[in-house]
Specification:
164 residues, single chain, Aminopeptidase, alpha+beta, 8 strands, binds coenzyme A
Length: 164
């Protein structure tokens, strides 16, 4: 059984791995960004990595949008070989728990239309109508953070990884 660890990237190596997953998915695979998906939010964002069997296979980032508790999550990515193994869902839950633990009350995200069912399954709701973002249909979605923290330390968590 493979072990999955999700945690905030804390070392230079983890940060590099976080960015490499994003680059692989959003630049090379999806072509949403031409060369680099980094932007100004990266300076202060919380960057998360998911390790499976010791290798970083997933990433997500999150950051506050205001001082009233609104947070945004984005750049959720799992490498193709890690998909449907339950890495993405823990990454989303970890982002929600981390934002809640840091004082957030609500989180929003701009979701690629095909992933809306995945986010609904995790308790997120649609906000408004679909919109175009970088040439693809997206849906803004949201989740309340109050009480969202599960019973694990927000610094990181680990469990057995499997498709069943
Ligand atoms: C979207 C993404 C992060 C999902 O990660 P993942 O590791 O494959 O997802 P999980 O294995 O944790 O899936 C959890 C559950 O959601 C389901 N699911 C995953 N993606 C889904 C989708 N697009 N639509 C519907 N259900 C989906 C899985 O089948 C699984 O269901 P189950 O619990 O009943 O078995 C991943 O496919 C990915 O990185 N895609 C490319 C980049 C991307 O689209 N990022 C998100 C931008 S909004």
């Amino acid at each position: 059984m493979t072990r999955l660890d999700v945690r905030v990237a804390a070392t230079g190596r983890e940060l590099a791995a976080h960015h490499e997953v994003r680059r692989e998915v959003f630049v090379r695979e999806q072509g949403i960004f031409a060369e680099d998906d980094r932007d100004g939010w990266d300076e202060d964002a919380v960057k998360v990595v998911a390790y499976a069997a010791g290798r970083v296979l997933g990433a997500v980032r999150l950051y506050p949008l205001d001082e009233a508790g609104l947070w945004k999550g984005d750049r959720l990515a799992v490498l193709p070989e890690g998909r449907r193994l339950r890495i993405g869902a823990p990454l989303v839950r970890f982002a929600v728990a981390t934002a809640g633990a840091r004082g957030g009350t609500r989180m929003i995200a701009l979701i690629q239309a095909r992933n809306v069912p995945f986010f609904r399954q995790l308790g997120w709701s649609a906000l408004g109508d679909e919109t175009d973002y970088r040439g693809a249909t997206h849906q803004e979605m949201t989740i309340a953070l109050a009480g969202a923290q599960p019973a694990f330390a927000p610094a990181g968590y680990a469990w057995a990884l499997g498709a069943s």
